UniProtKB/TrEMBL annotation:
UniProt protein name: D-galactose/methyl-galactoside binding periplasmic protein MglB
Signal peptide: 1-18
Entry's Gene Ontology cellular component terms: outer membrane-bounded periplasmic space
Subunit structure: The ABC transporter complex is composed of one ATP-binding protein (MglA), two transmembrane proteins (MglC) and a solute-binding protein (MglB).
Top-rank lineage group of the source organism: Bacteria
Keyword Transit peptide on entry: no
Entry coiled-coil feature ranges: none
Presence of keyword ATP-binding: no
Length: 350
C-alpha cells in the first residue's frame, strides 16, 4: 500500500511538472503571435521639413499606433539616399514598404527592389506613372487627383475676384497675376499650375501672366521670388497664385514688408494645403483661401493599406477606402475660406 501511494505521488508530481512546462511553452508560443500582429513597415518621407509632409508623417505615426512597428526615414530630398534607405529597410526584414518618392520617375527602381524582395509597396503623395504602377501587382498608391486641386483653386480665385471688383487696379477687366510653381515635373505642381489658370478663364475672366517661376514648395524661395517681382512690377501685380501654402506664406511675408495688408493696401493671395499656419492667415484676412489637402486621411490610408498587405490581407480589408482603376486611393480636396475654416481645423485636431 505504501509503495502504491509513493508511485501515485510520483505520477502526480510528474503530471504537475508537465503541465507547468506546457503552460510555459504556450506562453512562449503566444509571444510570436503578438509580435506578428504588429508587422515592421518601412516608411520613407521625401523631406521631413516639408510643411505638408510633416503633417502626413504625424498622421502615419498616430495611425500606426501599436498596430505596426515603423522604420521611418528622412530622404532629405535625395533620391539616391532614398534608394539606399529602401535597401536598408528590406535588410531589416520589413513586411511592407510605404514610399513618398523624392522623384516620381524613380518609382521603377523602388518597384524593382520591392519585387526582388517579394514585398508589397504603397506609394503616397507623389504618384508613380501608370506604367510603373501596372508593372507590379503588389503596388498601390495613396494621394489625390492632382487636377482637382487646381480646379478648386481656380474657382476660389474666380469667385473672390468677381466679389471684389476693386482688386482690378487698372480697370482692364483682366487679372494680372504672378504664379509660384512647385517642383518642376511634380504631378501636383504641373496640374495646379495648368488647371488653376484654365478654370479662371473658363469662368469668363481674362488673365495676364506677369511671372511664373518655381519656388520648389519652399517658403523662403517664395519670399525671394515675391521680393523680386514686387521690385520689377510693383502695383501692376493684382493676384498671387501659389501651388502650395508654404510659398504663399513666403509671398505674404514679402508683401507685408512692402506695407501690404495695412489700411487699404491689399494683395489677394491663394495657396493649397490648408496647413495650420495658412489657416491663421485666412482668419487674419491676409490669405484669401486655400485648398485642403487632407494630410490626416492621406497618412491614415497609407498606414491602413501598408498594415493590411504586411499581414497578408486584402489591401482594403476592414477599411473605408476605395481603389480606382489605377490602384489608387484618392483623398478629396476641399476649398477653405473663412466661411468653413473649422473643417480644416478639425483635420489637425489631436
Amino acid at each position: 500500500m505504501k509503495k502504491l501511494l509513493s508511485v501515485l505521488m510520483i505520477l502526480t508530481l510528474m503530471f504537475s511538472l508537465a503541465a507547468c512546462g506546457s503552460s510555459e511553452q504556450s506562453s512562449s508560443e503566444a509571444q510570436p503571435e503578438a509580435e506578428a500582429s504588429a508587422p515592421k513597415i518601412g516608411v520613407t518621407i521625401y523631406k521631413f521639413d516639408d510643411n505638408f509632409m510633416s503633417f502626413v508623417r504625424r498622421s502615419i505615426e498616430k495611425s500606426a499606433g501599436d498596430q505596426a512597428e515603423l522604420v521611418l526615414n528622412d530622404s532629405q530630398n535625395d533620391q539616391a539616399k532614398q534608394n539606399e534607405q529602401v535597401e536598408m529597410m528590406i535588410s531589416k526584414g520589413v513586411k511592407s514598404l510605404a514610399i513618398n518618392l523624392v522623384d516620381p520617375q524613380a518609382a521603377a527602381t523602388i518597384i524593382s527592389k520591392a519585387k526582388e524582395a517579394e514585398l508589397p509597396v504603397v506609394f503616397f503623395n507623389k504618384e508613380p506613372s501608370e506604367q510603373d504602377m501596372a508593372s507590379y501587382d503588389k503596388a498601390w498608391y495613396v494621394g489625390t487627383t492632382s487636377s482637382e486641386s487646381g480646379v478648386i483653386q481656380g474657382e476660389l480665385i474666380a469667385d473672390s475676384w468677381k466679389a471684389n471688383p476693386a482688386w482690378d487696379k487698372n480697370g482692364d477687366g483682366k487679372i494680372q497675376y504672378v504664379l509660384l510653381k512647385g517642383e518642376p515635373g511634380h504631378p501636383d505642381a504641373e496640374a495646379r499650375t495648368k488647371y488653376a489658370v484654365e478654370t479662371v478663364v473658363e469662368k469668363g475672366i481674362e488673365v495676364e501672366e506677369l511671372e511664373l517661376q518655381t519656388g520648389m514648395w519652399d517658403s523662403v524661395k517664395g519670399k525671394e521670388l515675391m521680393d523680386a517681382w514686387i521690385a520689377k512690377h510693383g502695383d501692376k501685380i493684382e493676384y498671387v497664385i501659389a501651388n502650395n501654402d508654404a510659398m504663399a506664406l513666403g509671398a505674404i511675408n514679402s508683401l507685408k514688408a512692402e506695407g501690404y495688408f495695412e489700411g487699404d493696401k491689399f494683395m489677394p493671395v491663394v495657396g493649397v494645403d490648408a496647413i495650420p499656419d495658412a489657416l491663421t492667415q485666412i482668419e487674419a484676412g491676409t490669405l484669401v483661401g486655400s485648398v485642403l489637402n487632407d494630410a490626416a486621411n492621406q497618412g491614415k490610408a497609407t498606414v491602413d493599406l501598408a498594415i493590411n498587405v504586411a499581414n497578408g490581407k486584402d489591401v482594403l480589408e476592414g477599411t473605408e477606402w476605395k481603389l480606382d482603376d489605377k490602384k489608387a486611393v484618392r483623398v478629396p480636396y476641399l476649398a477653405i475660406t473663412k466661411d468653413n475654416i473649422q473643417v480644416a481645423k478639425d483635420c489637425y485636431a489631436e
